[in-house]
């Protein structure tokens, strides 16, 4: 029972924070809550299991250091948001997108477009940070609510990420479960495709039944963009080159850095007046340098003549990612404390006692993966923990490994973005500028996927065993 105390403490603290701070919970209250829960976990481990502080400290340090690549990627994504905006790349995508995508089919088009991009590049993070930003602008211009726009973007991005052979989570889930990659992908189609079809059907119906005029004034937005930025289809060369680098499987950090560098060059050549205006000076090489450095690391306010559009083209650069990074470190501390003290393992052993048939086994796997997303704040760790925990059980009961790998993905990959303090939830919320709890109700694919996985297991469709 002692192992449940840290979770209860965290749940109570987070609930109080949401009640008191609302959407501002992630500005600091959640971080403090995670540290308090971590302290409770460590104290219980130290006094009840006689664990030495030096060993606990080592485990926590290793856990925090494991998120270093994610932190660097977050900083680069922050710089991409600023440079692609000031270079006119995102404004160009918004400008042409508003002319092509009609309001009635915007939500479904957004999901399908993000799904295709994510399927090709294998990264939901990159999809959201590039085409997702442009779609947010188009959706706002048409007057859609932020939650609906972000939900459609995330739905498509995670559908493509889940089925792409280039996705790191797809490769991880198949490898740790001992499933051939394309066998794993084909088996996921049985749960993923029906769930995505249901999701885009909801978006399609919503697009035709919603009154989306609101403050959306497409012509006013287009005029504001033309007045502020140089709009040209040639600017789309940067995202095309970025896609080529991704297709050639360049490392993520290299791709992001090159995308920033290309955008900086384009901004200096094409949007030079805007760069000087941001720097607050008349001209000169040093002034341009100052302007682009400010765009990369700091907050950028661009006056377009339209208050809504001003908010849309506002960027925060690397500094805007700092609250997210702060929360990731605190979340990793909590996950490390649970793992180091054995409290997470205690919970999992208790869960295994509830397993009876196929449906309960899949439900337990999905539930464990979701729980790990909440407890460890990391989708990769969630996949590895849930897979390693249930691997022997699936084998002993005669199930083929693709059932395990699919259940782990259905429970871990897609739900990670729904947890406010998970690395995925934090990243997408920060990049899109929409609170996790705001877009959560509209991420139909992400919370229907686990339910679909359990439903398919319950009816026994395509449940394969190693022996008849």
Structure description:
The protein has 468 residues and is mainly α. 55% of the residues are buried. It has 24 helices and no strands. The protein is globular, with a radius of gyration of 23 Å.
Strand content: under 5%
Specify Rg, calculated over alpha carbons.
23 Å
Question: Low-confidence runs (pLDDT<50, min 5 residues)?
Answer: none
Structural class: mainly alpha
Helical amount? over 70%
Largest sheet: none
Distance between the termini: 40 Å
Which features would summarize this protein structure in a list?
468 residues; single chain; mainly alpha; 0% strand
Helices and strands in order:
Layout: H1 5-21, H2 29-48, H3 53-65, H4 68-86, H5 89-100, H6 106-121, H7 124-142, H8 146-163, H9 168-177, H10 181-209, H11 218-228, H12 237-247, H13 252-270, H14 272-279, H15 285-297, H16 307-313, H17 322-341, H18 343-352, H19 358-376, H20 379-396, H21 401-411, H22 423-432, H23 436-439, H24 444-459
């Amino acid at each position: 029972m002692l192992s449940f105390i840290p979770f209860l403490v965290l749940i109570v603290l987070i609930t109080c924070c949401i009640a008191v701070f609302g959407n501002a919970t992630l500005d600091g209250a959640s971080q403090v809550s995670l540290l308090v829960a971590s302290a409770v976990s460590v104290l219980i481990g130290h006094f009840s299991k006689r664990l030495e502080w030096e060993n606990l400290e080592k485990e926590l340090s290793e856990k925090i250091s494991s998120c270093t690549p994610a932190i660097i990627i977050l900083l680069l994504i922050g710089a991409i948001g600023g440079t692609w905006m000031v270079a006119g790349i995102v404004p160009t995508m918004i400008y042409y997108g508003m002319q092509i995508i009609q309001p009635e089919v915007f939500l479904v088009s957004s999901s399908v477009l993000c799904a295709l991009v994510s399927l090709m590049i294998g990264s939901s993070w990159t999809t959201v940070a590039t085409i997702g930003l442009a779609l947010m602008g188009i959706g706002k211009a048409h007057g859609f609510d932020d939650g609906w726009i972000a939900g459609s973007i995330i739905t498509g991005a995670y559908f493509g990420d889940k089925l792409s052979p280039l996705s790191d989570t797809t490769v991880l889930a198949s490898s740790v479960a001992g499933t051939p990659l394309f066998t794993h992908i084909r088996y996921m189609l049985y749960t993923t495709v029906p769930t995505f079809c249901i999701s885009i059907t909801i978006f399609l119906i919503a697009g035709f039944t919603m009154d989306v005029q609101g403050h959306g004034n497409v012509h006013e937005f287009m005029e504001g963009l033309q007045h502020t930025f140089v709009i040209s289809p040639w600017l789309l060369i940067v995202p095309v080159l970025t896609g080529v680098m991704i297709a050639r499987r360049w490392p993520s950090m290299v791709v992001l850095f090159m995308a920033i560098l290309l955008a900086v060059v384009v901004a200096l050549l094409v949007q030079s007046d805007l760069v000087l205006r941001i720097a607050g000076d008349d001209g000169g090489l040093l002034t341009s340098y100052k302007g682009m450095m400010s765009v990369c690391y700091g907050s950028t306010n661009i006056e377009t003549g339209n208050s809504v559009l001003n908010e849309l083209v506002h960027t925060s650069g690397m500094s805007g990612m700092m609250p997210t990074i702060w929360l990731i470190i605190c979340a990793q501390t909590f996950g490390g404390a649970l793992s180091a003290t054995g409290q997470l393992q205690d919970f999992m052993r208790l869960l295994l006692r509830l397993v009876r048939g196929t449906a309960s086994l899949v439900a337990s796997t999905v539930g464990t993966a979701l729980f790990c997303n909440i407890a460890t704040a990391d989708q990769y760790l969630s996949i590895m923990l849930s897979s390693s925990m249930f691997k022997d059980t699936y084998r002993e009961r005669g199930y083929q490994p693709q059932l395990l790998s699919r259940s782990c993905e259905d429970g871990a990959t897609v739900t990670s973005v729904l947890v406010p303090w998970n690395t995925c939830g934090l990243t997408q919320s920060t990049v899109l500028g929409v609170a996790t709890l705001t877009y959560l109700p509209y991420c139909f694919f992400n919370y229907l996927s686990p339910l679909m996985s359990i439903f398919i297991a319950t009816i026994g469709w395509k449940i394969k065993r190693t022996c008849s």
